[in-house]
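>> received
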Amino acid sequence: MIAIENGYQVAVLAPTEILAAQHGIYFRQILSKLGLRDGPCSREASAAAKRLNSSDLVAEGLVHVVVGTHALLEKDVEFKKLGLAIVDEQHRFGVMQRLGLVQKGVIRTCW
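>> returned
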């Protein structure tokens, strides 16, 4: 919440579609009550949902929390002002994958 209140976006990187969906449900329940927007980003999401979330809303900063799988690491996923990246089960992601996410925003790393 501190990152969002200061104008930053949050990325939550999960290793599986199931885990990303579970995180998405959790964040949606909290964020919707606060008038904030979340968005999915996964390889399994429909093409329309991917296009809408990754290229428009996220890049424009209209999505506050993006929950996704390895799809978050793809080049076409751009953030307006990524300030916090949460990596669930980071042992399932390589150092270069985590670095790739870090390089998408203004992030201080601490792992």
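>> The CA atoms of residues 24 and 67 lie 6 Å apart.
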